[in-house]
Amino acid sequence: MVAGDLTTMALLIFDCDGVLVDSEYLFARVASACLSEIGIEMNSAEAARRFAGVSIKDMLARIALERGAALPHGFENLVIRREDEAYARLLEPISGVREAILSVPLPRCVASSSLPERIFASLAVTKLDDLFAENARFSTALVAKGKPAPDIFLHAARQMGERPRSCVVIEDSVPGVQGAVAAGMRVIGFIGGRHCTHDHGKRLEAAGAHRVIAAMADLHDAVKGLTSPTGLHRGRAPSPS
């Protein structure tokens, strides 16, 4: 492939958790265990399904609303600390992601619901930090509303000097896909993370993903396909491996 194949696009925007690093299943385990300690039973599969792509702050606000009472003081810090410990020991990059990123000759950035320090740490632990400049890593902490609002994607495009319609977003979560679509961007749904269930691809399609891939080896062709006359037609989602 030559760069001319991608002349209608100018920027790739990667989510971090579940797209660059295989972290969502780890976070779901941590969240489930921490919630159990305060009397809220939610298994890790449910936590992943409900809160993948959502910031910790928004997740805890939603749980508190459902509970009808504030969560214990310091609970957010407990979750973050346990998350840090799990990631330091167990976090891995998504299989094939480095090669996939390098196969697409476009500028790139990260737009994540994680805190800024978490984005930096996750990229460092998985040795992907050399692929994304420090000024090309954007957190929803920087904007008014997190995913599924379009704020973080519009902010990333603006900071990178590109128009939304020239951006392609790679996302693994329903809120992330919804936010990218609302921003007017093309979206590739990714279902190769360990948190993805058998129906995950269909959920991403229903949220608006234009393409769905189960392996990073398919990223190159998916990005290229979005430039074709039928590139925005949604096809049947593959099953996660």
3D architecture notes:
The protein has 241 residues and is α/β, with parallel strands linked by helices. It folds into two domains: 3-22 and 92-225, Rossmann fold (3-Layer(aba) Sandwich); 24-90, DNA polymerase, domain 1, CATH 1.10.150. Helix content is 41%, strand content 10%. It has helices spanning 24-37, 44-51, 56-67, 75-90, 97-102, 116-125, 151-160, 174-182, 200-207, 219-225, and strands spanning 11-14, 108-112, 137-139, 167-171, 186-190, 211-213. Strands 3-2-1-4-5-6 form a six-stranded parallel beta sheet, with helices on both faces. Helix 6 (116-125) links the parallel strand 2 (108-112) and strand 3 (137-139). The radius of gyration is 17 Å and the shape is globular.
How are the elements arranged and paired?
Elements: E1 11-14, H1 24-37, H2 44-51, H3 56-67, H4 75-90, H5 97-102, E2 108-112, H6 116-125, E3 137-139, H7 151-160, E4 167-171, H8 174-182, E5 186-190, H9 200-207, E6 211-213, H10 219-225
Parallel strand pairs: 1-2, 1-4, 2-3, 4-5, 5-6
Helix pairs in contact: 1-2, 1-4
CATH fold-level name of the largest domain: Rossmann fold
Assembly level:
single chain
Major sheet: 6 strands, parallel
Q: Reading side by side through the largest sheet, how are the strands ordered?
A: 3-2-1-4-5-6
- From the spread of the alpha carbons, the general shape counts as globular
Q: What's the number of structural domains?
A: 2
Distance between the termini: 27 Å
Broad structural category: alpha/beta
H and E string: EHHHHHEHEHEHEHEH
